[in-house]
Amino acid sequence: MSSQLENANPVVFQRSGERLLTASEEDEDVHDPIDDREIFDLIRSINDPEHPLSLEELNVVEQVRVKVDDPGSTVGIEFTPTIPHCSMATLIGLSIKVKLLRSLPDRFKIDVHITPGSHASEEAVNKQLADKERVAAALENSSLLEVVNQCLSTHSI
Amino acid sequence: MAADSALALALVEEFVSGLVDSKAKEATKAVKDGEFTILQLVEALGLSLTSSQPHTRARGVQLLSEVLHECSNSLTEKEVEVLKTFYENRLKDHYVVTPPVLQGLKSLTKCTVLPSGSAVSMLRSLFQDVHVQSLMLAERACVYNMLINLMETREAELKSLGPDFVFGFVQSMDGERDPRNLLLSFQVASNIIHRGYDLGKFAEELFEVTSCYFPIDFSPPPNDPHGITKEELILALRSILTGTPVFAEFLLPLIIEKVDSDVQSSKLDSLQTLAACVSRYDYKDVAKFLEGLWTSIRREVFQTSSEKLEAAALSALQALTSCVSRCVQSSDSEDSLSCFLDLLIKDCKHHLSEPDLKLVWPSAKLLQAACSASIRASHIITAAVIPNLIEQYNSRTQCSQRRTLLEVLQKFIQSVKSLGSTEAEDNALFPYRSSLCGVVFSALTETNDSLQILATSALASLAQQTGLLDESDIELAVDHLTKLLLTDEDERVCRAVVDCAGTLAAEHPAQFISRMIPRLKMETFAVPLDADVPEASQGPSHQSLRGRCVAALASVSRGPSVVQQSTPVLLELISAAHTGSVQFTMEDVVLACHGLQRIADQVQVSEETEETGRCFHHLIIPRLLSLALQAALQDVPRPSPLLEESVLTAMVPVISSSCSRLQPKFAEETASKAVSLFLNGDVSFLPDNSFPSQIQLLKGDCWRQSQMVCLLMGCVCAAPRAVEVPHQDELLSALEELSLSSSHTLSYTSAAKCYAGLVNKRTPGEALDSLVQRTVKRVCSELDNPKSGVRSQAFTLMIWVAKALLLRYHPLSATLTDKLFSLLDDPDLGSVAADGFSLLMSDSSDVLNRALHADVRIMYRQRFFTDNSSKLVQGFHAATERKSNYLKALSNIVNKLPKQVQTTELPALLSLLLEGLSCPDLTVQMSTLSCLQPVLVQPPPALLQQLEALVSRLLALTSSPAMDVRMGSLRCIQALSHFPSHEILPFRGRVLRALSKPLDDRKRKVRSEAVQARGEWFLLGSPGGR
């Protein structure tokens, strides 16, 4: 099995703690805007396709690379593959995109792309992820959908 | 006699020719009653047994066997001998005769008078004439049962058969497929192995016929009436395979093969079997396979996909290492243990030098598992890794790397732990103690919180090893901990320090008494220099500092010597707060009480309790009572904090913990002193005795005095049931009076609780019944009078007495609970009555629980529910205005029921719950949701028929104005997604559409519930999902 892994011993980063609950979040009358941390919390627990680790632990996603504009209804995510030739980059991007499509209200425009300079075929991957039709087509493919769903299920073990 | 034979003949005729099965029972009864003997029966059977028709012969034998089944023990040795010979001979008969013959032989094997030698001859003919696997299920079971019976009673005879017995058994079980029979045959095999039968040259054959079932893959059919589980089969088979070292050469390759498979459950079973088998093996048994086993284990840990597998692999490695450690070294060969461990170290050690990378953890875990296997393994592994880890820690500067290294080090220290060696020099860590201390102390002074927390747990692990820390180290550690406690800003660090101090103090009390306690005392009583300046400066606030000091004082009080130093400090705090000599707030006093309670709770039951018990019963409790009394009698403008309800309720557990846990003989003294104080105003046992002579605490004229009754409750309701409380009748009537007359909530509630606590422990009998009846009458008359001024008092007393009686299954509890049901319709008390059900069903913390030795019968909740649920349903349908009270009461009860009962009882209540969901009252919605949610985890079939109603009601609630209701309904919707998919798949599209709205909820918490629920519903019916 070990021969199949592209990166058998990756660097592991610490997980951030749970978001602290503030008094205003308990208050019925206050409106909580959707913020960077909330989006980050949505995607940080996505499982890596290869390792029993989350994208956050592999530092593929970071909170500073999440940009959200709640009134303007846009979300922008940059993700960083662990190695420049990672063949899983498209799959990871697709998982992030699907997770956000399922978890955010329809009004949001979701943009997922690779952190500039971190992957060999950056442009191709970005283009694939930005193309609505190709994303939709990918999700019609049941074996691809299966892998994506596995990345998104909370009880992978 | 002739008549008897005629009866026998008639029965035989009807059974054999008439095919009337019930005649066998009649024949059995006749033999049992002595109407005819077995011999007469056999004579009567004569014709049928010699018939030329095999079926007739079979029928005849069947009758005989069925009679023998019941009557085998009334046979004489001679009769047994004859019957045995007959049956053995019949084995050679036509195949239709075989089943009843086997039944008969089985009955004979149960005979106590079986002549010696007959077991051998039975088995010989059995193995020779019968091909077991071509028999039917029941007959195969019969053969295995014969073997089991004979093994129980005729062990020596069977052993005399030698390997032939094993061979015969192997042949009979070869190819068995039914799980019921497998369990039986596994039992025979296990007996063969564990009771020392000679396997001879058939060891491999026996292994083959059993190991072909490994790993067990069995899922019982739904509604399985036999109740055989996979676990049963696994354990039965494991006990055979791991039972003897003879199997080692066959089993170990099989295990390696199965660990390498892709099926999770077979990996797990193989690893567990490995851990079990090597405990019986010698080095020579495993030597050939060590490398292969290591490779498999390593792969499982390095690329693990589940924690269960990882844990199984690690314990297998530990077992394997201790097996190798047991090997006796011979002088000419190399040390096998170090060879094996070198293999591990070679594969794992280099990963420890890359603390950022993923494999550092699995490598550390593998080495630690090996390290914890034996003393020698500890020495070899620590020598290989500890110096390197320490050096890395000292040379690396990045905080995250140091954190990893320190945590790895801490786990290594722990893994050396469990080996009880007395000499400090024997400890594998002894050579590194000073550098380990250096690392730990330097980490304690770091600025990073998580490093500090790790350092405290490493320090605690070091302290638990004998002789690693010498006195100066402990002193230094105590100083470090004190400093952190008093200066660090982070509360998590502080909690870690408090825990660590507790662990250290248990081993080294002297240093804490001399260094930490005086410092903590000083800080506790220190007056803030400038109280007006806002706490913007560095360090924790004064308030939280006091809290920490108190927590640390409580935590370090692990032995009588420390307790005697720390409790006076806490008492002094309470007393100073009362006199006002130092400015303590109410919160400080509450904290001090919690501290005292914790000390009483953490006393280990051992010979030390005597001293600590004396301290609590003779010093602390009288002092607390005295201070509370002073506060109650005082009449000064500045009210003492000891009059506050929160302080008094914090004192109660101090008293009740010491009465329930420490020394019953002292508890008895305390109870009688408290009774005489409260009944007679006897203050002689209190310190600082300057009280007026006329004190009447239970009269209820002054709330300051009457509220002290809660302390009385602590004294008399917590002791073990054997402890006698004096003057009970007088006390009970005073309490009843107070609870029905006082207008002060704490006073009348505590009086009612105290009354209930005493009633619960009272010996059953006439006196108790009449007492309860009197109270019930009085309470009901107050409740029935709508103009009464003490209705809520009467209600409180009623509900507590009802609880006290319900817990002990007292028949009179029904009167009170029925009253409670009728109150649900009451305009004033209806809603309180509904809440009362929650009090009835939950454990209360300060009285009437098992820790305080109350009489609590098992499953009283279920009993109450089954007795009363129909009343609720009826009441609900009959009610007009206050339906919501019934729903609230119902959800209060159902919430506290164990799962199994909920599931079985739910169908009857389902319509009520659904009604609760559509009830406009928010609290009813909320309580129904919280009652529904646990039920949804394992849905009862009745629920599946109501899915449509349930889904639409839940979806409607996701737009409720109350956020708790929105969250509750979303949680239920998420739980729905785990229902059998064919049932809920039709709802998928609708739920997904409906859930897109709460994704944009204004509250973040609601959104997060919606995200989880929607995510689960998306996975439903989708590839890779569920």
Please tag this protein with its features.
heterodimer, A: 157 residues, alpha+beta, 3-stranded mixed sheet, 36% helix, 10% strand, B: 1026 residues, mainly alpha, 51 helices, 70% helix, globular, DNA repair (chain B), cytoskeleton (chain B), ARM-like (chain B), MMS19_C (chain B), nucleus (chain B)
Structure overview:
Chain A is α+β, with helices and mostly antiparallel strands and 157 residues long. Chain A is 36% helix and 10% strand. Chain A contains 6 helices and 3 strands; from the N terminus they run ααββαβααα. Chain A has helices at 23-26, 36-43, 89-103, 122-130, 132-140, 142-152, and strands spanning 66-69, 74-79, 109-114. A 3-stranded mixed sheet of chain A has the order 1-2-3. In chain A, α3 (89-103) runs parallel beside α4 and α3 (89-103) crosses α6 (142-152). Helices cover 70% and strands 0% of the residues of chain B. Chain B is globular. With 1026 residues, chain B is mainly α. Chains A and B meet through α2, α3 and α6 of A and α51 of B. Chain B: It is found in: Cytoplasm, Cytoskeleton, Spindle; Nucleus. Chain B: Its main location: cytoplasm. Chain B: Residues 550-976 form the MMS19 C-terminal domain. Chain B: Component of the CIA complex.
In short:
The complex is a heterodimer of chains A (157) and B (1026). With 157 residues, chain A is α+β, with helices and mostly antiparallel strands.
Distance linking N and C termini of chain A: 18 Å
Rg calc of chain A: 16 Å
Largest sheet of chain B: none
Shape of chain B: globular
Find the structural class of chain A using helix and strand composition.
Answer: alpha+beta
Note the run of SSEs of chain A as H and E. Answer: HHEEHEHHH
Most extensive interface, residues per chain?
A: A-B, 42 and 38 residues
The portion of residues forming beta strands of chain A comes to 5-15%
Strand content of chain B: under 5%
Q: Total number of helical segments of chain B?
A: 51
Q: Give the CA-CA distance, first to last residue of chain B.
A: 75 Å
Which bin fits the share of residues in helices of chain B? Answer: 55-70%
**Low-confidence runs of at least 5 consecutive residues of chain B:** 531-537
- Tally of DSSP β-strands of chain B: 0
